[in-house]
Amino acid sequence: MAHSALGALQPEQRKLWVKESIRAFREAFFFTKFLGTSENSIVQYVTELKKTEKGDRALIGLVADMRGTGVVGDNELQGREEALESSWVEIHTDQMRNGAKSKGRVDDQRSVFAFRKEARDKLAFWRANITEELMMLTASGIGYQYNTDGSTRLIGAQDDLRTLEFADDVRAPSSRRHFRFDGTDLQDGDTTQISATSVPKYGMIVDLMAEARTRGIKPLRMGGQEYMVYLCHPKTFARLKKDPDFRDAVINAGDRGAKNPIFTGATLTMDGLVIHTNNRVFNTAGAASGSKWGSGGNVNGTRSLLMGCQALGYADIWGSANWYEGKDDHDNKDVISIAAYQGVLKPQFISRYDSDTVQDFGVMAVDLAL
Length: 370
Fold this sequence. Notes:
Radius of gyration: 23 Å
Number of domains: 2
Distance between the termini: 52 Å
Oligomer: single chain
CATH architecture of the largest domain: 2-Layer Sandwich
Low-confidence stretches: 1-10
Shape: globular
Number of helices: 6
Protein name: N4-gp56 family major capsid protein
Largest sheet: 8 strands, mixed
Pfam family, one: Phage_capsid_3
InterPro entries: ORF017-like (IPR025267)
Strand content: 25-35%
Number of strands: 20
């Protein structure tokens, strides 16, 4: 089967189309604002492999803050230095592809839109959409067999996302990073205990921030200030706005001031907390009755996330993605595809704040009624 470039697309033109595809992807991708290559990022972004004895691998280093008291005056420091608690974690990666094919030369003549532009935009949106879903599910500890509304993912003619190399790395929220709010206080996470009274209040956010700080979740440091991100469903934020204590706190909140990308599209910034909303925050609105939350499995719930540094690791090894254009059906149909080599991981570490147990490094989950 012969393949040829669409419309004799030249190399420089092809580069331009790839750049436009990347731009469209980044504009549509919610997590773009959280990406950073340093450890001082909500999502640590890895674009190249590190050489190791076991081959080239996508790795990020986790380094906890120092806790020692230091050495006073002229007392000897030699031999009394504090060891940095660090570990390397690997982000497994896999190729993800999708493509579009025109109906044929006759249909193209009748069409009012340019196939190449339409395919570019749709494929860029697909990449943003699927990567965003994978990140939401990974951070929430939900398997890839589900959509972010709790419904079972339909596979159709394409592949099961559970076959991705990094799918088995999805972990449920760790024991000391998982909570539910009963309407008054934070409790240990248990989705069977979610009820209609499990609605968010300002006190929940205050308590959750305190838990994060005492358990070693590292805040982002920007401009001399420390910040964490609270990511919730729009309905959760709507419930918060009905709480009088939350409204008072909003009135007294200072100007966000910072120009960091994490503030782009932020719903609210106050007391070192940047609140973002997204429809893809995990919830059970699409789950079948009996498979939702609550004692009877019939309560719609949602899992909000409090995120600090390195809440997620995202490897995007090809960066620009691989863009292919060709012909099919004896040169009658145009074909365009995009391929990315990527992976997502919620890092975990042995936390001395939590009796040396394995815990999520940079994210806490709190379950609520939707």
